[in-house]
Task: structure prediction
Amino acid sequence: MAELGLCSRREADDWVEQGWVKVNGVVATMGQQVTAADRIEVDKVAQGFQEQRVTILLHKPMGYVSGQAEDGHTPAVALINPRTHWRDDPSRIRFSPPQLRGLAPAGRLDIDSVGLLVLTQDGRVARQLIGEDSTIDKEYLVRVVYEGPGQAAPRHPDERSAPLQEINERDPVRTNVQAVFPPELLARLRHGLSLDGQPLKPAKVEWQNPEQLRFVLTEGKKRQIRRMCEQVGLKVVGLKRIRMGRVVLGNLPVGQWRYLAPGERF
Result:
């Protein structure tokens, strides 16, 4: 059922336990084996529950962790309340407390990274964004300084880096990293690097302005962009996610959120 995109694996288990799934006209049982030739039917009750589940787009500020509270830091879901709901939300969906039940991040942003964070109750959305077979690309603005080859010391994925700066696309450019960064190293960022012993998929990397790169990735290893930059002598000093698939951060203010509108797709 998950492979067919009907629901998440957890939802599939719940639906089978509730008796909402039939295989070839017979109520399914937990662990039942099926093949591509079998006919799977889902009760409309299950579909109704699924339609009530929300997906929320948050402009995460610095100082919040994406998932569970850790090291005394507040989880981003704490920002989801009526006071922080964007007044210009075009969805016209009303907030209600049950929407917080099971709301989880679909992809992470580090505590000092900012930008678009997706929180969802819908397993189909989570699978689409972070499933093993996900092809959704994510776009980032990355402010960097050039320390020279071998000068940016590689870090373990779990090692906390120095705090980053907030990125505003209208900030004045103070330095010209682009002028001193070798083109061959930019080519390596696009393709040719490895992390954790595994080659990375090709990425789109280009200069947004003389001190800021634009990354478009189709994978999301832990602290991937910072670790990629370290391998070519760049130090990341600011990171902001501005797009996931076809959904953009747009004018959503920092610390506020909106619903994924009906008909809006990643």
User: Anything to note?
Assistant: The chain has six helices and 16 strands.
